[in-house]
């Protein structure tokens, strides 16, 4: 048996011959350093550095449609801006 820790976090126990599967790793957190230590002999150890892959999510792109203006009373006007996105979230915000 052995223990392993990822980036210095709490060690987890593993069994030789059984694969270690790490999931839900954020690419934005960067490279991983995995330290593996034998449970019976701490001098029997190894360290592995795994380079984070390039982002695999498509980039967000915001498209603006034709802007429409409408005159209102009292010298005011309204602007209508059609906004859509490719790979965006469910909402957006405007800042003036």
* Strand line-up across the major sheet: 2-1-3-4
Average pLDDT taken over every residue: 90
How many beta-strand runs?
8
**How is the biggest beta sheet arranged?**
4 strands, antiparallel
Beta-strand portion reads 35-45%
The arrangement of helices and strands along the chain is: EEEEEEEE
Could you characterize the architecture of this molecule?
- Helices cover 0% and strands 39% of the residues.
- It has strands spanning 2-6, 12-14, 32-38, 45-50, 61-64, 68-71, 77-80, 83-86.
- The strands form 3 sheets. A 4-stranded antiparallel beta sheet has the order 2-1-3-4, with no helix packed on it.
- A hairpin with a 6-residue loop joins β3 and β4 (45-50).
- The radius of gyration is 26 Å and the shape is rod-shaped.
- The relative contact order is 0.17.
- The model has no long low-confidence stretch (mean pLDDT 90).
């Amino acid at each position: 048996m052995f223990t392993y820790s990822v980036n210095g976090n709490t060690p987890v126990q593993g069994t030789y011959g059984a694969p270690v599967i790490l999931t839900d790793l954020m690419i934005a957190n960067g490279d991983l350093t995995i330290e593996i230590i034998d449970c019976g002999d701490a001098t029997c150890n190894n360290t592995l550095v795994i380079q984070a892959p390039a982002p695999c999510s498509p980039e967000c792109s915001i498209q603006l449609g034709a802007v429409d203006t409408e005159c209102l009373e009292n010298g005011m006007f309204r602007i209508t801006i059609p906004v859509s996105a490719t790979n965006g979230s469910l909402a957006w915000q405007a800042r003036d």
